[in-house]
Amino acid sequence: DQVNSMTPLEELHRKRILLQTEYDILTSQHEEDSYLRLRQVLYEHGERAGKLLSYQLKQSATACRIVEIGDNMGNKIIDQMGINNEFKSFYEDLYTSEINDRDRVKDFF
After folding, report:
1. Is the domain of 53 the same as that of 76?
2. Residue 27, pLDDT score
3. 46 Cβ partners below 8 Å, 6+ apart?
4. Residue range(s) defining the domain that contains residue 101
């Protein structure tokens, strides 16, 4: 790079590009091999083959968790117990019968 910056020649530039390309190929192959080796080690040396599957399921479960909802008043709820209670009350209200006038019900039937 220093020689090419002082006296830019096309031949030096080509050599530099070739060397850079070769270096990039070697490092990407090394990284790819390291990644595959790591996955194989996790799979083979775990207590069971299911350990890796369990880890992956746990990661996907935490990624799909609901972290915040709003209640009827517009307040934000962020704790898990509050979120669960809000869902429970929402579905209880949704599925409870709202007919309180017995006379209207009798007249209807």
Report:
1. no
2. 78
3. 52
4. 69-108
**74 and 25 co-located in one domain:** no
Share the mean pLDDT of the chain: 77
Provide the number of structural domains found in the chain: 2
Q: Please give the distance of CA 27 from its chain centroid, rounded to a whole number.
A: 27
Sign of CA dihedral 33, 38, 39, 43: positive
**Cβ(77)–Cβ(71) under 8 Å?**
yes
Q: Does 58 share its domain with 100?
A: no
- Report the C-alpha gap between 56 and 41 in whole angstroms: 15
pLDDT digits (tens, 9 = 90+) for 65-89: 777 888 888 899 888 888 889 989 8
